Amino acid sequence: MSRPVFRFAPSPNGLLHLGHAYSALLNAQMAAQADGRLLLRIEDTDESRSRPEFVSAIFEDLEWLGISWEMPVRIQSEHFADYQANLVRLWDMGAIYPCFCSRKRAHADGLQIRDPDGQPHYGGSCRALSRADAEERIAHGGTHGWRIDMAQAGDPEAAVWGDAMIAKRHVGSSYHIAVVTDDALQGVTHVVRGLDIEPATPLHRLLQGLLGLPTPVYLHHDLIRDAEGHKLSKSLSSTALRELRGDGATANNIRRRLGFG
């Protein structure tokens, strides 16, 4: 019988904080309790924000916390071809379509219904393009992303996202197509992540079903929040683990503070 496979998959667009530490420690604990495997994946498809120094900092912080993982570490930016192959499969089955709209135009065309991220549903300007017209625009260098056609998908749970963008403009991939591709390729059986990601789970299950990929067990843990009740975030400049370390905190201090002591 194969062993359960867990993964911790941070994005290197900032330094890890206590919220990341909690998720990493929880995955490590659950993997150990299940006699499973723990993988580390670097989700750096957003090349405009990812930095090599943050990748190095992730390794250092996790090692400092006493977490170990299997090698090699999967670096998403090295595997765009895998994500593109699945996009082609989805386009061939009519499940997605290329969208040439700018972000401003997409929002202007949006419906009153909003997705879990608070963005208006895409109005569908590009949905009616024929494949021949879309291919011609792509061949002439038309900048585009890829949206899932929810009318074709027919999934009421995932429909709350509208025609979600699953591959970004200029970047080549996005969280949604990359994460389901990687989880399948790496044999991940248990996805343990924060409640903030829970709304995306129906979309991921939909993509897995369309592509014939296995669906892991999903568990969503509580978030670590600051004194004002806000979830910790790189965008809010939440105190980084290395800052706490610089102020004298030890790995045992952090583990106990997060309930792993």
Alpha-beta classification: alpha/beta
Which spans have pLDDT < 50 for at least 5 consecutive residues? none
Residue-averaged pLDDT: 93
Main beta sheet: strand number and arrangement?
Answer: 3 strands, parallel
Shape: globular
Count the helices. How many?
Answer: 10
Ends apart, CA distance between termini: 31 Å
Radius of gyration: 20 Å
Give the topology string: H per helix, E per strand: EHEHEHEHHEHEHEHEHH
Helicity range of the residues?
25-40%
How many strand elements?
8
Percent range for β-strand residues: 5-15%
**Main β-sheet, spatial strand arrangement:** 1-2-3
What does this structure look like?
The chain has 261 residues and is of the alpha/beta class. The radius of gyration is 20 Å and the shape is globular. α7 (175-185) packs across α8. It contains 10 helices and 8 strands.
Can you give keywords for this protein?
single chain, 261 residues, alpha/beta, 8 strands, globular
Annotate the secondary structure layout.
Layout: E1 5-8, H1 18-33, E2 37-42, H2 52-65, E3 70-75, H3 80-92, E4 96-99, H4 103-108, H5 131-139, E5 145-148, H6 150-153, E6 165-167, H7 175-185, E7 190-194, H8 201-211, E8 217-221, H9 241-246, H10 251-257
Parallel strand pairs: 1-2, 2-3, 7-8
Antiparallel strand pairs: 4-5, 5-6
Helix pairs in contact: 7-8
